Amino acid sequence: MAGMSLRKLIWGLLTLGLLGGQAFGFPLSVQAAQTPTANFVVTPLFPKNQLSTKDGYFNLKVTPGSTQTLKLSVNNPGTTRRELQIIPVNATTADSGTIVYIPSNRTDPSAKTTFTKMTSPAVTVDLAPHQGKTVSFVTKIPKNGFTGEILGGLFVTNPKTSKASTKRTAQNFQLANRYAVTTAVALWCQPNQAVPAKVQLASTKVITNDASTAPVVVAKLRNLAPIAFGELKIKTQVFEKATGHEIVSQTLKNRSMAPNSWFNSEIGLGDKPLAPGKYTLKMQLASGDRHWRFTQDFTLSKVRAQEHNTRTKSVKGAATAWYWFALAGGLVLVIARLAYWLGRRHKDH
């Protein structure tokens, strides 16, 4: 009877632990989104002024005042008719700090010209099953040429794949449930000309992306030069202005920026309650032997401080709950081992 009671006690405690796990929200397994299969093939047809045939994109030396023709071969390997849309786009920088080639209006005003301004408009191509066609675009190079590089791309997609396949937000441009391919286009008047990158911290402010997230500090970084660069490391710190106390620190690596582009670098406000008032943002950027340092003050309003403090309390409450649950789990194991030891001792006696 004593052994049976001990077993009941052990199973009862373990069951309580499992139920506790469900109550405290153990994460459930989530299936990964399926990657759409390729339903068309795009191949760039390089002209004679291609700088390197090893590049898988258009990398061209162009002449001021000339007209450059860009040709793409598009093929439909499937058994159904497809309608493809080919859109010239400018290279921009996403908020993740990466160069992207998607439809966007995020080109920086510092750009004297862009790929889309120089290139003929989008075209639509209808392809029968197993049919291929060659699509041509005309790019007019300015009479006075340009400094650095013009970076863009030819964005190819099937607009009928999904009616709600694109979503445009204030922060970024997203594609969902749509297969797309972009062939990059880099144009140079003087490929060997050294153009220094010029980065500027345009603004710093506190925002909330939506009601379910805590406020974040957004630093808008601009590349004012017509040159792309990568291997960008960004260290960001937030200080309380009155005391100089560091609130939070963050380091990002392997970022990149497109020519004459901008992006919003975000950093949270930490996990401690904050008072409304003045704060200071400090940023250190490095790309190779290029370095930039920025310092800018910003204001945390009463509304944003309240939102942050509410989220902080919620996170701390959840952390406290997990602490007590972990403590209870440890207690269960101790009791289980003690019960096992008592059971063995009772059996030996």
From TrEMBL:
Residues 171-309 form the WxL Interacting Protein host binding domain. InterPro entries: WxLIP_HBD, WxLIP_PGBD. Keywords: Membrane, Transmembrane, Transmembrane helix. The chain crosses the membrane at residues 321-343. Residues 40-157 form the WxL Interacting Protein peptidoglycan binding domain. It holds the Pfam family WxLIP_HBD. This is Cell surface protein. It comes from Lactiplantibacillus xiangfangensis.
